[in-house]
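Hi team,

Below is the intake form for Phosphate acyltransferase from Lentimicrobium saccharophilum. Please confirm the fields before the structure is written into the shared record.

FORM ID: S-0412
PROTEIN: Phosphate acyltransferase
ORGANISM: Lentimicrobium saccharophilum
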Amino acid sequence: MKIGLDVMGGDFAPVATIAGALLAQKELSPSDRIVLIGETGIILGELEKHHADPGLFDIVHAHDVIGMGEHPTHAIVRKPESSISIGFKELKHKRIDAFASAGSSGAMLVGAIYSVNNIQGVIRPCTSTVLPQENGGLSLLLDIGTNPDAKPDVMYQFGLLGSIMARNVYKINNPRVALLNIGHEEGKGNLLSQATYQLMKEGKDFNFTGNIESRDLFKSKADVIVCDGFTGNILLKNIEGMFRMMMKRGITDDYFTRFNYENYGGTPVLGINSTVIVGHGISNDVAIKNMLLLARDVYHARLSQKIKRALSRVTVVVRD
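The structure came back. Fields below:
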């Protein structure tokens, strides 16, 4: 397979992206190839610093960059020669099999939706994160910011998408799907939570186990935890903030070390017709390496095809 990497994306690009690509190249199989997308001169210069053979990679030139502060939709249109825009062109025309970037997450989402499109039947694509569990396992939390104003049918689909990802990428058999709420009893929460609970309770498309409270997020009570993007983003940044504070104060522990974002690399955009991975803006070389390895795993899991099949037999009617 060919994995496209936005060399210019991220706070520490291109130094971290090229270093991460070199780390990943050592772990990928000989049949896998990384396609470096960005300013050719910069790419060759960084490879030379590592005394690396440019022949290990394919290089696609892109002379422009979308900044983190730019409006995603406007930037995709106004900067067709940016590394993100070029990456999506490569993906759309199947010259690469997956595309990964630690650049503007908004531009990555807009690019994904407008270049490879949603899977038919998916109302809103979403993104997820991994939550380490005390017993050594992990759970998925979604959505983490793509859809701040999700409705119940969208939330129901999050449960389905998360269940498929947990089963096929993280090899969790019959994943338990829970709804993040302020109480575990049925009837708790705001109108969105209550309506979503009823849909999930009546649906038969995944293993819904009821509500989960935030204090139980790390106690292995659920494999997939569903919330709207507004709540998920606040929760994610709260966890990141706590992890950074613990590291700053020298509090180390094998379990808490698993919260380091570097370990996971990024998140796939779920619900689109291809493999797109969005990395953290502050990604270092290790995070970039893991982002590329995640792209490989998601591609080989054939997640998009499995989501299509699952939607063709969904039991809950949702608006399109």
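SUMMARY LINE: The two ends are 32 Å apart (CA to CA).

Thanks, M.
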